[in-house]
Each structure stands twice: as structure tokens, then as C-alpha cells.
From TrEMBL:
Organism placement in taxonomy: Bacteria, Bacillati, Actinomycetota, Actinomycetes, Kitasatosporales
Protein name: Class I SAM-dependent methyltransferase
TM stretches of this protein: none
Key word Amino-acid biosynthesis present: no
InterPro entries reported in the protein's UniProt record: Methyltransf_11 (IPR013216), SAM-dependent_MTases_sf (IPR029063)
Coiled coil: none
The keyword Lyase appears for this protein: no
Key words, A-Z: Methyltransferase, S-adenosyl-L-methionine, Transferase
GO terms under biological process: methylation
Domain Methyltransferase type: 59-152
Length: 209
């Protein structure tokens, strides 16, 4: 997981965080743990609109404690989650115990999934922190079956030293690899975050050829 969506500065990016140390308290954030029923319903509704209508294979990169993985599983999808933090992966495994889901420790930019291919690659608050977002996107697109989709939740956070990736830059990176690209603005929906937000938050759904 690469962004806690709160208090991030240019000197304290996701790559600098000790995510193992933060794992135990990670779900305390409303949009991380989805413990509030209204926040959970808001994310479930968005995810339902982003993921394929039929059951499929979802690769959740930077999955954290598995909250979005759990929603995808509840909607009938088979989930593979990848996170660099072993502590996060342990919590995700516990959260989805007994479900059709597997969680791996690994780099989101180059997930250790071998030749397996997916219907959807789901990534929330990870791409902005990677050293080469364009390369990561091309690799992720290569993990998709024909007609698969990238679902990318990103934003720009902070005021004194904002960090993130603007929607315009992300759609530009996707242009050579995706046939259809849709941007959905998320800043205006406080239910997703458990509070009002003023920074840029959005989702991009990109369907490959």
C-alpha cells in the first residue's frame, strides 16, 4: 500500500513508509478499513460499477489489509492480492480467510504472478509512488486478458508539497495502451473517505483492446 491519503508530504511518500509498522493501525482510517457501514457501501457501489459484471479474476496490487479485495470477493470475483508488506499480507489473509483469494508478498510494479492473467487489475493509491508509472502501467496491461480493464484510484494530496499523479497525466500515460479510458471524479463524495475532502481524488477505468 503506498498512500495513507492523510498528511502526506513530498518528504514522506509511500515509498518511505514502514508499512509493516503501520499495518496494525492501518484499518483505523475510514477508507482503509471500511468499518463504517456507509463508507463500506459507498466503496462497494463504486467497485461494482468499475469491475466486470460477471465473475472474474481480479489482481489487487498494493492490496494493504485487503479491504477492497474483500469487497471484490463478496461481489463474486476471484482475488489475488499483492503487497510489499508481509504484515499487510498477513492481515489480508485473515480478513479473507475461507474465500477464493490468495495473497502474495511482492512488488506491485512487478507482481509475482508468473503467467497468470486477469480480467481486472485494481490499484488504489500506489501508482503515484512508483518511480516509473508508465512502465508499471504497460506491465499491468500485459497481465490482462483481452478486453481486460485497469481500475486505478489515484489523486493529488497535500498543500505545502503536494504529491500524487493528476488525472490528466494518468490518462496521457494510458493513451497508448488502452482503447477506452473513463475518469470518475471522487473528491465530491465524502462517503468514500468518511469526511469532506478538498484535494484531487479520482478513479480511471481503462479497457484494453
Amino acid at each position: 500500500m503506498a498512500n495513507d491519503s492523510d498528511g502526506t508530504t513530498s518528504a514522506n511518500t509511500g515509498a518511505d513508509m514502514d508499512w509493516d509498522a503501520r499495518a496494525a493501525g492501518f484499518d483505523a482510517e475510514p477508507d482503509h478499513g471500511l468499518r463504517d457501514p456507509e463508507v463500506r457501501r459507498a466503496w462497494a457501489a463504486r467497485l461494482r460499477s468499475w469491475l466486470p459484471g460477471r465473475a472474474g479474476d481480479v489482481l489487487d496490487l498494493g492490496c494493504g489489509t485487503g479491504s477492497l479485495s474483500l469487497l471484490a470477493s463478496e461481489q463474486g470475483h476471484r482475488v489475488t492480492g499483492v503487497d510489499l508488506s508481509p504484515a499487510m499480507v498477513t492481515l489480508a489473509r485473515q480478513k479473507l480467510a475461507g474465500r477464493d483469494a490468495v495473497f502474495l508478498v511482492g512488488d506491485a510494479a512487478a507482481p509475482p504472478v508468473g503467467e497468470q492473467r486477469f480480467d481486472t487489475v485494481l490499484v488504489r493509491h500506489v501508482l503515484w509512488a512508483l518511480p516509473d508509472p508508465g512502465r508499471a502501467l504497460r506491465h499491468w496491461a500485459g497481465l490482462l486478458r483481452p478486453g481486460g480493464r485497469l481500475v486505478l484510484v489515484e489523486g493529488v494530496w497535500g498543500t505545502a508539497g503536494p504529491v500524487g499523479i493528476p488525472a490528466e497525466r494518468l490518462t496521457g500515460l494510458l493513451a497508448p495502451i488502452a482503447g477506452q479510458v473513463r475518469v470518475e471524479r471522487l473528491s465530491g463524495d465524502p462517503l468514500l473517505w468518511g469526511r469532506e475532502v478538498t484535494d484531487e481524488r479520482y478513479a480511471v477505468v481503462a479497457v484494453t483492446a
